[in-house]
Every structure is written in structure tokens, then in C-alpha cells.
Amino acid sequence: MKKLITLGLMLVTLPGIARAEVINLNFDDSLTAGESVGNAYSDKGISFTGFTTFSSTDINNTSAPNIAVGTKAGYQVMQVNDGFTALTLTAGAAAASYSGFGGSVTPPAQILIMSGDNGTGDVLASATITGSLTDFEGMSFSGFSAPAKSMILSANSYQAGMDAITITTNSLTPVPEPASVALLGVGGAFLFGFRKLNSKEESPAGA
């Protein structure tokens, strides 16, 4: 009997599979055009600095009702408190512009994946946005040398937009293995059958 109880306890304590959380952001949830994204996704452990939503008609992107665009020249930052191991999104940027004698080119809009909080630390991955504001293109980042904590959109004011961000976070959710659950059920059934058989053997004859 003690062996059966020990077996049951072993089955209960078998490790499960760790599953990373996947978060999808489309900026349509309770946000309207012209609204700061800010801490709108704080319940998911994600915050934005320098991002504002604009309707697709404002910049001719028809992939979704609202997209996030940087409103400050320089860096706009997305912070993921738990960190992340992969990131996909759609993005577009304005064509390079020229101004002044000889023509100064507007720096290209870029995405930078950072190892530290709020756009600090090492650059784990980066890419130039090749899509236009009228034709967003998909971008994907993964295979970092370390978990990332933040993402930078480097672009001049209103020169770039992003939408449909999918983040694979670094926080792991334990999930019971199906095999462990099945073994636990078999062990419980065996224990129940053994106790029933044992009780019959102990019953007086003819009872």
C-alpha cells in the first residue's frame, strides 16, 4: 500500500512542459486615433514611450483600423517587463527626404532590439524598415543571444508606423504533460481497484 502511495506522489510531481506566453497587440483595443499608447497594455507588462495611434486612413495603410506611429524625432521605445525571445510586426516608413543645399537625407527608420530596459543595453538585433506608409511589410526578430527587454523605433516624427505586433515573452507558464496526467489517472484507478479487492478479501465469508 505504501508503495502505491509513493507511486502516486511521484506521478503528481512529474515536471510539466514550460510554455512561453505569446501576446498580440493590434492597437485597436480601447484605443482611438490620436491617443497615446503609453500604458494601455500595462496589464500585459508592456508599456510604450513616444507612440501614438493613428487611423489607417491617416497614412493610407489599410491593414488595420489603428496603427502606432512615433510622434517624437529620435527614439520611441516599447518596454516588455518580462523580456521577450521573439518579435514580429508589420511596419512602414516614409521615403527619404532631402533638404538644404546639397541635400541632407533623412536617416532611415529602423527597429532595434535591446537587451536592457527602456532602450538601453546591447543591440541584440536590428533592421531597416523597408515597407512604405502605404504598404506595410512584415518584420521578424528572433534567435537573440540573450532575452530582450525593449524595442526601439528609430524614426523622425511621423515618419514610420507599426502594427500587428506579436511578442513571445520570456515568462514561462508550466503546463502539465499529457503523459503525466494519463499516468496519474492509471495510478489512481489501480489504487482504487487494489483497495476494492483488498476489502473483499477481508470481508467474512458468506457476508
UniProtKB/TrEMBL annotation:
Superkingdom of origin: Bacteria
Pfam family, one: PEP-CTERM
Coiled coil: none
Keyword entries, A-Z: Signal
Ranges where the Ice-binding protein C-terminal domain occurs: 174-195
Keyword Signal: yes
Signal peptide: 1-20
Name assigned to this protein: PEP-CTERM sorting domain-containing protein
